[in-house]
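[User]
Um, tokens okay?
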Amino acid sequence: MKKVDFMMTAFRDGFQSVFGARVFSQDFLPVVEEAAAAGITHFEAGGGALFQAAYFYSNEDAFQVMDNFRKIAGPSANLQTLARGINVVGLDSQPRDIIKLHAQLMHKHGISTIRNFDALNDVNNLIYSGRCIVEAGLKHEVTVTMMELPPGCAGHTVEFYEGVLRKILDSGIPYDSVCFKDASGTSTPRKVHETIKMARRLLGKDIRIVFHSHETAGCSVLAYMSALEAGADQLDLSMVPMSGGTCQPDLLTMWHALRGTEYDLDIDPKKIMKVEESLKNAMKDYFMPPEATKVNPLIPFFPMPGGALTANTQMLRDNNLMDKYPEIIAAMGEAVAKGGFGTSVTPVSQFYFQQAFNNVMFGPWKKIAEGYGKMVLGYFGHTPAEPDPEVVKIAAEQLKLELTRENPLDLNDANPAKGRKAAVAMLEANQLPITDENIFIAASCSDKGIRFLKGEGTIGVRKIDKKAEAEKAARQDAAATGEMTVSVNGKSFGVKLSGNTAEINGRKYEFGVTSGIAQVEKQVAEAASSGSTEQFKEIHSTLLGAVVRILVKPGSPVKEGESILVLEAMKMETMVTAPVSGVLASCQVKEGEQVQAGALLAVIKH
């Protein structure tokens, strides 16, 4: 029997693929301990979206979570994180000093291996980051990213992947293993077989080859079998409730698929069953997005990776825009094709989704998402194919940037807003301790990281509110029977509704109901009602989002078109500008506050 190694992804990719990485470590770490006792020795323990999500949604320190993970998993466990090449753990790329610091901190906080990929398959983005990983004392798993394209599109072929692998070998990047990562789960099993077979031929018999996929398109188990038959040594597997659908195949599912073959996962299925029951119980109070558990046969036509799908749908829910999801997904195909066919994996998958979102909300190519625009302009490296020239032109005009062929690392090193020095300045301005961890948090999480360090972090974890569910059920029962008990300021009233009559504590009253809340006309500002000749202009939010930064203080002069504050929605920042010149009379919001579309943000006196 040939032993098949596997990495347990439930505690990183599983959380990202189902819950958008919004989880509390106290809920899952006890299950990690149980999984280790059941014989699992290789865990994905952080990185990817789980790093930023700790600060953005869970109000936890990702470094402390990794320390706790190591303590619970034991000293001999292989703990692995995911890094995005020069983007490390964010959507934006970083300069050399932050990339090096990332590797050093991962080693310091108990990580053994880093899987390192570049969504554009630009090998130049893997050279320095890979060197830093090895120099920090970690194992480096260098990665080729894969996906399938709609019929009629050329680019992601076995020959293309061979070219990427040959460039990796020719570059001299130090590595311990090679991973082929299909984040969208769309590569055909035949292509997987031919790709792994090609890699085994080039790498020889001793180099570890890993294959990673998702069940999003319904082909992952078949693709995994094809990878094993072609010579892969390791697979990525998960556990319920973070398995199948947008996640990796379940460990027990793969064990079952391998029964009667020459391959063996070397597990005790009864022990794994108990661990899975514990994990289901640990996650039972979390909101399970229905799209997370489904296979979607249309995914190959607009590759959306499992790890990004629910992260995006959770944000759509946050912004009350889930009804737009089908249109946005349908618009992704064009964003991929005109963007140069970078692999649909974070951060590029996020760029595709953001641009598709903008194309639906504002009209095709009327608003270029910053990440997408910088990608087609070359600020993240070279795309596999040349982006659409018209889109490149529009991006250059809107972002006021020129097309570049410079090394992104050189551009980032020269950018005063990036790097260690800029992060230290952020910490000093907020009177925060200057530590390596804080520097990296500031560099990778920006304003949200600073708010966390100041003790102003917010919670964005979606759990089922049992009290609200009970109240909802009670309201439904009341609506069905017309009888209810209403409590107001601690006093209870027995209410029975019948037609236009309400019987309250035995007395009958006539009532009527109309939809909505009557609007009361209000003054723009108090001064406007005092006979003043001054005029006031209200600034209202055009979207639902969070206030990231307030740029102008009340009492300060502003010019028409000047930025007043910054809102963030769908991981995109939008500048709110002054519609007229004058003085900022008041600011009605504070940093970190979530605002609704139409909310009053500020008032200008002019």
Remarks:
- The CA atoms of residues 121 and 429 lie 38 Å apart.
- The longest strand covers residues 491-498.
- Confidence is low (pLDDT under 50) at residues 519-531.
